[in-house]
Model the fold of this input.
Amino acid sequence: MAETLESGGPAVEATLHASATDPGMFWQPDEAFFDLLRDRRVTRSFLAEVVSPEAARKAESAPLKAQKAQLVAALTVRNSSKGDAWTPGWLQVPPTRHVEGAACPPADAWDRIAGLFEADGTKQPADQDLSRKVSAA
Done:
């Protein structure tokens, strides 16, 4: 079923939330992940999470290749010593952004549907629209 869902869409986020699935249990950063990682801001955000905010600040002027090498080394040490797998924010439930204000399809999708999963029972605008459509049908 997972292969049929739109990547980064609200159906994926709703399914992950409803089924309490942790994508991090099935994913680890591989060579392709680092090859596709080209945003310096995101790479520094990863370094801040995995190593420290200070390490990310120090790496700010380093070439992207050096930043990625530092991240690979830090993840190797972290995963072998702590047994604590790291996942990027967009693979967490609910997904988070690494760069405030930047596009992040999973986080954008979650923002659109989060109100459907509120525990307080208050109707969100999306719920009210859905109620009107259902009652009109």
